[in-house]
Amino acid sequence: AKENGKNNFQFYSSTLAIKSSRKMELEMALRKAIQHNELVLYYQPQVNLHTNKIIGFEALLRWIHPTYGFISPEEFIPLAEETNLIFSIGEWVFTQACKQKKKWDALGTPPITMSVNISAKQFQCSELAQIFEKIITDLQLNPNTVELEITESIMQNIDRSIKILNELKKIGFLISIDDFGKGYSSLSYLKHLPIDTLKIDKSFVDDINDPVHKGSLVKAIIDMGQNMNFSVIAEGIEKLDQVHFLVKNNCKMGQGYFYSKPLPKEEVEKLLLRMNDT
Ligand code: C2E
Ligand code: CA
Ligand code: CA
Ligand code: CA
């Protein structure tokens, strides 16, 4: 902290230098990552909390670098946003997830949705909806089984965002608000957006086990979602008592390590084929 004076500042600035050189290296490496096939998608199951059946998957990006090893999306997505690489990465993610969904549909499994994370920065591209429409049209994929996860941060550019969201909705995509409740933005914006789903942020799901909060905010979000006719899904479920609490309070969908970590596509395929057998 600052109060320790000069020494600490030196410590801080040298850390910063290390940080920024790592950042430059990362930026160069990220530029090559797509061409070198270093980016892969993992898929986390989303389940019906009553039946435990899989209802969908969330595509989550992984960067496996030959020398740096595993690099977390928490680290490289912000960098991709800063450097505008998010536009090509975002398009790659969307295309890849849609292709995968198409393949899984062909296995003859029960209907599942595919959720794709869309960065707020991608909404700065006015052709976003047209680009996504072309991709699903080329693949002959039904848009109403593809869910786009956006965060409240798109509201920083509200007029443009609403316009693009309406275009995406008109094509037929499902729209969900990710990390819901974490953005501290006004709730009144919900009325103006074409939203299908609220995704309760993990921090609130954690609160279910908090002796003081006891999941009071989770309850409030579920109630609000019901009143406004949104689907509600809880993320970051790790414990059975959280499942019990969610079911008791009428939350029908969830995802989290309790059910499964994000899986490589081969593992998902095995899961889906097993589902077919039962
Ligand atoms: P997110 O969209 O909120 O995704 C949920 C994160 O929580 C994922 O981390 C997931 O692996 C992790 N998670 C799921 N269940 C549990 C659980 O029970 N416990 C715990 N502790 N964690 C759980 P991941 O994959 O590291 O992704 C981190 C963030 O990076 C994502 O948060 C999302 O904001 C971003 N991200 C990931 N893939 C993409 C992408 O393709 N595009 C964009 N724009 N952002 C992405
Ligand atoms: Ca997400
Ligand atoms: Ca989330
Ligand atoms: Ca999150």
TrEMBL record:
Residue span(s) of domain EAL: 23-276
Protein name: GGDEF domain-containing protein
Species this chain originates from: Niallia nealsonii
Residues included from the entire protein: 467 to 744 of 746
